[in-house]
TrEMBL record:
Keywords assigned by UniProt, alphabetized: Ion transport, Membrane, Transmembrane, Transmembrane helix, Transport
One Pfam family, short name: Na_H_Exchanger
Membrane-related topology note: Multi-pass membrane protein
Main subcellular location of this protein, as a coarse class: membrane
Subcellular location: Membrane
Lineage, opening ranks: Bacteria, Bacillati, Actinomycetota, Actinomycetes, Kitasatosporales
Domain Cation/H+ exchanger transmembrane: 21-417
Stated name of the protein: Cation/H+ exchanger transmembrane domain-containing protein
Organism: Streptomyces pharetrae CZA14
InterPro entries in UniProt: Cation/H_exchanger_TM (IPR006153), CPA2_transporter (IPR050794), Na+/solute_symporter_sf (IPR038770)
Residue spans crossing the bilayer: 6-27, 39-56, 68-87, 107-129, 141-165, 177-201, 207-228, 316-338, 398-420
Length: 446
């Protein structure tokens, strides 16, 4: 390739990135006007732009606008954004101080996680009853069942925390309980996702590859954690947070590429790095100028910078997914599959969240609100779906059905909360603050 071709391709990629980011901004703006989480508009526009362009033109024009060489670069950029964003997401998957009591947390997790797992198995049964071979694929049944169950059980921590803030529920008892349980459930989901990817091997001997990849990724993450706990790393983090962020991003990309090369999805490697980064320790005394390594290292700022960079690039991932996965899925996915996935997805979280909240001691009104909050899936669900697809477990029609479910359940969270609020104002359910005193007070005193 000569210099002119290289410059032409670079200009084409730059123009494509600019269009993608502009469309993402339009999607966010439209979602905000409709009082929806911005991620709903961003994801919807990103996923549909490719199929829409192809529907309004012919294949030749589409390939000219987005040739294979440019699509390959966009794929790498989208995956890079996903890896970097996941570092910050995984780093937050730990309950912080001031959380709800363990008994209430365990009860809600039992309802809002186990019931959706069951509805995932029911969805697999529906696919078998309807003989939907396009949605089933050819992977081993245990891997398919576990992957579908995991996708039905996710609650998106970032979108949920944003909704809680917008609704003024962040400091409420049910808000703290919902967010803490979502963190625990997502952590369990990542463990089960890793197991599902391992079970996706054709035979037991094939399990060695993902096992070796997991050990290699875990070893890299452990070395990173040990290195970050040293004095030089702490000083670098305090004095040069941007440099620290760049190094963390490089470590995440390196670990992700290693795990993918060894047979495991890159997303698992990124999650391992995010979990390995030390959290803030409030028990450590404040920084003492006389002792350079005293006090907790401010890892929050570099991690936030890495995650923010990844979040800016994730719209590219959605566009690539729409082009490479959903174009063929629209013709292969049945309405029975899409409707069944949406109904079972809502039933699992709404009923499971309500039942778990009631087991935790919440009264009917707050329990209904918690059930609605548990139904928020958002970007985390899409990351899990992507992991299942890249591992060859979720075929394109199944991906489309799950994406529709993820977007619909996230979009309906606000309106359903509004219905619960209006019902409270009419006096048909207990007031928002009427949680059991043990749940409301014990969590706030921690």
């Amino acid at each position: 390739m000569d210099v002119s071709d290289l410059l032409s391709r670079a200009a084409h990629v730059t123009a494509a990135l600019a269009v993608v980011l502009l469309l993402a901004r339009v999607g966010r703006s439209a979602a905000s006007r409709l009082r929806q989480p911005e991620v709903v508009g961003e994801v919807t526009v990103g996923l549909l732009v490719g199929p829409a362009v192809l529907a309004l033109s012919d294949r030749a024009l589409f390939d000219a606008l987005l040739p294979a060489a440019v699509l390959d670069v966009l794929t790498f950029v989208g995956q890079t954004g996903l890896v970097l964003y996941l570092v910050g997401l995984a780093h937050k998957l730990r309950p912080g101080p001031g959380g709800p009591p363990r008994q209430a947390l365990s009860a809600l997790v039992a309802g809002a996680f186990l019931v959706p797992l069951t509805t995932g198995l029911l969805l697999v049964g529906l696919i078998a009853l309807t003989h939907d071979t396009a949605a089933r694929g050819e992977v081993p049944l245990p891997a398919f069942c576990l992957m579908v169950a995991v996708t039905m059980s996710i609650t998106a921590v970032p979108v949920l925390s944003r909704i809680l803030g917008d609704r003024g529920l962040s400091e409420s008892a049910e808000g703290r309980l919902a967010l803490a349980s979502a963190i625990v459930m997502d952590g369990l989901g990542w463990v089960m996702l890793t197991l599902a990817v391992g079970l996706g091997a054709d035979d037991l001997s094939g399990l060695w590859e993902p096992a070796v990849a997991l050990l290699a990724g875990g070893g890299c993450a452990l070395l990173l954690r040990l290195g970050l706990r040293t004095g030089p790393a702490r000083r670098l983090c305090r004095r040069l947070p941007r440099t620290t962020a760049a190094l963390l991003g490089g470590a995440a990309l390196g670990t992700a590429l290693l795990t993918e090369h060894l047979g495991m999805t890159a997303i698992v490697g990124a999650a391992l790095v995010g979990l390995a980064i030390p959290g803030e320790d409030p028990a450590v005394p404040a920084e003492n100028p006389a002792v350079p390594d005293a006090g907790p290292a401010p890892w929050t700022q570099p991690v936030a910078a890495v995650s923010h960079t990844g979040r800016m690039l994730t719209p590219v991932f959605f566009v690539v997914t729409g082009v490479t996965v959903l174009i063929d899925a629209f013709s292969a996915a049945s309405w029975t599959l899409i409707t069944g996935t949406l109904v079972l997805g809502c039933a699992g979280k709404l009923l499971g969240g309500y039942a778990g909240a009631r087991l935790a001691g919440a009264r009917p009104g707050p329990a209904r609100r918690i059930g609605v909050l548990m139904n928020t899936r958002g970007l985390t669900e899409l990351i899990v779906i992507e992991a299942g697809h890249r591992a060859g477990i979720l075929p394109a029609p199944m991906v489309l059905a799950l994406v529709v479910m993820a977007l619909a359940t996230t979009a309906m969270t606000g309106p359903l909360l509004g219905l619960v609020d209006r019902a409270e104002r009419r006096g048909s359910v207990p007031a928002r603050s009427e949680l059991p005193r043990s749940v409301a007070t014990e969590g706030s005193t921690r």
